[in-house]
Specification:
single chain, 145 residues, alpha+beta, Immunoglobulin-like, 2 domains, 31% helix
């Protein structure tokens, strides 16, 4: 009887070890693609654009990436643009462009689109990103009070 119990205990221990290994392997396989995409986002070698709302109508477009963007086009849609270039030939990392963008009266624009090339000869496919605008919801802020 002692031998039979020992065999059952050893079999149960073996099954528990196998189950633990199988679960760890499955969890690792499931989370690995998420870790890879997160890592790729952190060390993206190209341009990464961000739009900062500075004051009422003023914004700053920055290249926070690691590489220069070429042939940058800023599509402001129906916004009234008083300052800032719509086309920038070369946008190096750390560079910033200032914009004064005013909402039109008839509708609200919620974002702008920035498109660019990674190569200086513009022979690669253009990349683009939509950047949200700060929208004024407070009536005092809307009237500059």
């Amino acid at each position: 009887m002692d031998v039979a119990s020992a065999v059952v205990v050893v079999a149960a221990l073996g099954f528990a070890l196998w189950a633990t290994w199988y679960v760890r392997r499955t969890v690792t396989a499931v989370t690995r693609p998420e870790q890879a995409s997160t890592l790729a986002e952190r060390i993206w070698p190209g341009a990464v654009f961000g739009l900062e709302h500075v004051s009422h109508h003023r914004y700053v477009l920055r290249n926070d990436g690691n590489d220069t963007a070429y042939g940058v086009r800023v599509d402001v849609r129906n916004l009234v643009r008083h300052e800032g270039s719509i086309i920038v030939d070369r946008f190096p990392p750390g560079h910033a462009e200032r914009y004064m963008l005013i909402q039109p009266l008839e509708l609200r624009v919620s974002e702008i689109t920035v498109s660019w090339h990674d190569r200086p000869d513009h022979l690669d496919a253009p990349r683009s990103v939509r950047l949200p605008l700060h929208t004024v919801t407070d009536p005092y802020e809307r009237h500059g009070m």
